[in-house]
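Predict both folds.
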Amino acid sequence: MTTANGKYMLETVASKVLEGLDDVLRVMQRAAEEIAIGKPPEEIDISGLPLYMARSKEDQSGRVRGVVYAMDYDQYMEMLDQVATNSGLCIEELTELEVNLPQMEFGEDLVTGGFEDFKGICVERHNQCILELMEAVSVLLQRRGLSVACIPDEDVLFYLPLK
């Protein structure tokens, strides 16, 4: 996706991903603004979203430093794939699978070795396009003042610091 057309396509898809996150981002922004003007976090309407208030361990006052939204990693990846597919960018076609077979285990009584103690087969998915799309989404979020962190197989964290 290093061509100019490819980059434009990624930016277009990333913009559509942000449109899908717009409700969440709006609630986060409103919560951050209300906390910044002194409203207690318990009184803020978060529209049923699982928002978290980030506090610094070093700050003994317990002051809120930012607003965090956690999305399931698989849900985030599914959203990226769905938006990309609807936009004509088929992520699945660009996925490469790498299969790692277990190493043979050599035991005391085995001359040639065997698979008695094998740990299993490992299949890894590699997709440069999805990584570039995630980067494009991250850049757009940074322009809005947010940070995003992906923890594979766990969560995607969206962080909005207070101003």
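Second protein follows, with its predicted structure tokens after the sequence.
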Amino acid sequence: MMNTGNQPKLSNNGLLTTIAYGIKGEVTYALEGSVFIAGSAMQWLRDGMRVIERSPESETMANASTNENEVYVVPALQDWAHLIGIRKLVEQFWTDAWNYA
């Protein structure tokens, strides 16, 4: 992330504009790159969860969803999968994905 101050800035290089933090009602914006974590998420679905065999299959699964609130992904917590809340989400996702296949 790169701090861009109190006004959102648009990137000319494919970065995303995001909120870095807010303190006492004042928001500070940033630019961030999300390619790495998106790739890590696909790798996790393929190698870790074995929900997909190839990354493009994730699009088919996403398009088959009828509810945008079915799955929550918290990449920052990927090493904390033992937490009960995250574990339940992962188990539910696994069950739904397995039933889909």
